[in-house]
Amino acid sequence: MITVIFVCYGNICRSVSAEFIAKDYLAKHKIGNNFLIYSRGTSDEEYLNDIYPPMKRVLIAHNIPIRTHQAKQITHEDFIKADYILAMDEYNLKDLIYEFGKSNKIHLLGEYALPPFGSIADPWYTRDFEKACRYISQGIEGFFDYILNKNQI
Description:
This protein is α/β, with parallel strands linked by helices. It has helices at about 15-30, 55-60, 75-80, 90-100, 125, 130-150; strands at about 1-10, 35-40, 85, 105-110. The protein has a 4-stranded parallel sheet with strand order 2-1-3-4, with helices on both faces. α4 (about 90-100) links the parallel β3 (about 85) and β4. α1 (about 15-30) packs across α6 (about 130-150). The longest helix is centred in the C-terminal third of the chain and has 21 residues, at about 130-150. The mean pLDDT is about 95.
């Protein structure tokens, strides 16, 4: 079982979207039983809040199944359990490294996209929820291609 945690700042837009998109991708490719997927934030600012409504609308428009969500902050226990921690942007990455130290578990999701693009801008600020969804999807597809090519499952 490979444990993947998607991380953004508040766990109400990008990371939770990545969680739902990844679960949908895994279900469609019939490999979901090999993974434990969830999402967290680097902050507790949005603790227990649901996915942000404009982001939820974009996911629904793309036929991504939405599940119940309550935002949570990443913990030391999460870090220990994870095989991969995929941050949405450089700030999240720096926060994770500050909190847990440098680790080969921690990467930017965008590193896995083809071509790689690095950070996924926070749609809370950009208001471009569609673009965030597109970049998250590209990163997820590249990440799971990477895992499959590595023969990890």
